[in-house]
Amino acid sequence: MKINRKRKIESAITSSESGFALIIVMLVLVMMTVLGLNAIMTSSTDIQISGNEKVAVRALSIAEAGLNHGMRRLRGQTFDTLLAGLVDENSKYTLIDGTTFDSGTYKVYLRNNYQTDGGDAGKNMYNSDGDNRIIIRSEATYNNITKVIESEVERIASDFPIVAGISIAGAVEEFEVEDYSVRISGNNTAPPSGSGNWPSTTCSAQSGIAVKDNTAQTTINTAITNGKVKCNTSPASQTTISGAGGSSCGNAVDVNDTSLSNLGTITQTATDLMKYADRTITVQDDQDDNVTMSNISWGTFDNPQITVVDFKNTTGERELRIEGNSTGYGILIVNAASNEGSELDLRGNFSWYGVIVLTNYGEADLDNGGNISIYGGLLLANSGDGDADSEIELKGNVGIYYSCAANQRAQNYSALKVQSWHEVSS
């Protein structure tokens, strides 16, 4: 009996230990299951968060693309025209009404920056620009995530005083016209068909040449006296300088145009635009004397551009020669920091639609060997003194025509500067 009782006790103890171990094993399994599920849930959440972040980043990138598209669309349009139809401070102008990009979409709107001031001065300015600034708003959606960007944009003024075929605001040492085939006209001339869908304009005729500086006036008078220059003659095929004012050279050339008085403003405008050039060709001392480019295409009718030829700190004579068949649209700035001969030499068949500006000591040599045409105007803004080596040489089939349409289009497509940029809670 004692042996059986002992065995029963031992069996009960063993059974109790087995049950306790089973409970521990079960608890461990439950804990491991909970930890595993938690890890899976955490991993799934992390993946979802990572996916949402990627979607958000992509949506923001699409919004940035919309903003850049809006900037390009703004070029060539006046802010007042776009804002004119707004009826209150909450209304906005639709610049781009839905564009697909990178599997997402964006819309771009405009409103005046004045309304954000909150003061009385800005209260009624929602439909009229007063400071050349505007707000661009880009709203983008990708995979049900929306991102919004707003940017305040400033238009950099490019109101160069093109008041003649050739406008001379500063000093010029030499002005040479070497052939009767040269044409300088202040009559409003439409660019040729095939160069763009130019609007008709009713601008008044200007002088063939306009000057303000006394030294420049003397230089032009000498060129007329000694050069192959005729003024307002008939037939037109023999006319070298023509424009408003009558039949004499004294009338075809405006010798005291007050629009050209502020040389400092003109050169500062050129300096400002150079910072936002679409392209800059730099000619430096360590390069050969002459840099040659052929068959260039700088800008188009739909996308006029700002092109800069910068003779950067040159101490000797340097030349950029353009040959072949070349075209350009927009504003071409030739800047020379040195008082030595820094020259833009145009040869071959060259057509420019817009404004060409020579600043500081920049020169222009429009040579023969082809057909050179400038529709818009040529502006010399030489800030050097009378001893500056600044020259304009015209030879061969060269035509410089005042064109209101080409001038306005080039200057309306001025640079746009982003003043501020921020993401808006959608």
Care to describe what's here?
With 426 residues, this protein is of the alpha/beta class. 27% of the residues lie in helices and 35% in strands. The chain has six helices and 23 strands. It has helices spanning 2-74, 79-83, 214-226, 249-252, 263-274, 404-412, and strands at residues 93-101, 104-112, 133-142, 145-155, 164-168, 174-177, 183-185, 207-211, 241-242, 253-254, 279-283, 290-294, 297-298, 305-311, 318-323, 325-336, 342-346, 349-360, 362-366, 371-381, 391-394, 397-402, 416-424. Strands 5, 7, 8, 9, 10, 11, 13, 14, 16, 18, 20 and 22 form a twelve-stranded parallel beta sheet that branches. It is elongated. The chain starts with a helix and ends with a strand.
